[in-house]
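Input chain follows. Return structure tokens only.
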Amino acid sequence: MIGRRRDEAGSEPDGQSGNGQSCGHDQRREEMLRSLHVKNLALMEETEVEFGRGLNILTGETGAGKSLLIGSVTLALGGKFDREMLRRGTDSALVELVFQTEDQRVREKLLQLDLEPEEDGTVIISRKMQVGKSTYKLNGETVTARQVKELSELLIDIHGQHEHQSLLNKKKHMEILDVYCGEAFCSAAEKVEKAYKECRELQKSLEEEAMDEEAKAKEQALAEFELQEIQQADLKPGEDEELEQKYRLMVNSKRINENLAESYQYTGNDFENGAGIALSRALRALSSVSSLDGRLGELESQLSEIDNLLADYNRDVAEYMADCEFDGEDFAMVEERLNLLNHLKGKYGNTIEEVIAYGEGRQRVLDKLADYEAYMGQLEEKLGAARKRLDDACAKLSEIRKKNAVNLTKQLKAALVHLNFLTVEFDIAVNRAGVITAKGYDDVEFLISTNPGELMKPLNQVASGGELSRIMLAIKTVLAGRDEIDTLIFDEIDTGISGKTAWRVSEQLDTVAHAHQVLCITHLPQIAAMADRHFVIEKSSSSDNTITDIRMLEEEESMGELARLLGSDALTEAALSNAREMRSQAAGHKNRT
């Protein structure tokens, strides 16, 4: 295999300079998809493949199952599964992805999911699939499909035909430009979002507070009634809890007194068999001999202390029974007060404190209604000032977008020319939209012309599927140093291209692989020749069994696969010579960059 010359920073490809973004080795990151393990999925019995940094190329015969790679990764991350995907004769399938990352955002997301991140940055995502049931796990802990999706969006970006088609949506154009704008944009965007939220809240308040004279009179009458009802109650925090305790005692006072009287009788001196009389007799008996031995004196002291404690207990019981005597009038007053408090809590809050707070709120309503016109005028003034702040913030954000759009246009056009759009004209239009959103007032759209003399038009009116894939690759190349997702998978990147264009695509893939781990499925030898690691997807059959497997190729095996991709039916010396020449051309590009 060709070793990557990444020990020193290389020069930037044509058209890729600007804004301090380099595509050299110092921009390469250690984060990557380390391995893929698949069991009992379609034609795969069980296979495990380990990927590396840089450009990982996967090739294979038509029908060998190249789409299984994308399919298995997509399944692990929550893709749709049905029973036809199970390998014949099995009842479950397994896909496991092992990532290596030091991304702080991934660590924070794991903590949000109540999962402790591994010290070495390992993230293992697995999915066991059965008919009607799937089990997802993150680092061995069971999670939901939604949680896996949220985390995977920070780890991997899959570009198939669907992702290329997203360029037809103008919202995607703004997302791409905003990513390119960098840190200064983030600060300005936060100010826009904050100002937009403030305007929305003030506008909502104005709409809710707006009322005619009749509605205002009704609101005032209701507020006065409710406030008067609360104020007349003269509420005190915690009062309900004290009254509820007193009420329970009153309701149970008869039973309490009967049981206390019985306890008093058995521990006092008025009952022949009471503890008090027995204790007094025991103390007298011990006192008569306590002088004969010092230890007996200690025992007498202990018994005397018990006698005193029992006497104190009896006095306390007598006092409690005296205090527990409630008359009917007291009971009626407590019951009536509790009913009033519970009535108010049922209307205005769950606690006395909440009822008091509600009353304070009604007072504020009355204060507002007393000078309603001035109040509404103040709200309108606040909304006007907030709209001014929002408009200013949007203007600054738009200025940043327009400035960066000029630079991004130049870099994307250069990247497209490098991808063999020889007569391409490209522009990023940033115009003011009719409405303001939390993202500002800009309308961003990519315009392109691929034929001389034709006016630039929106992508959705001009670009074909093959052109969209190359445009997406150009975007990824320009954003290589800014895109925070570490692993990129490209499928159908070579749709509708060949020859020189294919070489240009392979060179751009290599450029992206300087800053990311790239996995690319291809049938073109020009792209396969650029591989840092070359994998082949093969299908083998016996009389009753068909298996698809993935394995990494050694250098000579890679030469043979390149020869096959070049159209050779047999591994002749001429075919291998062509493959070596193609590999040498790829190595020349790597050395130049």
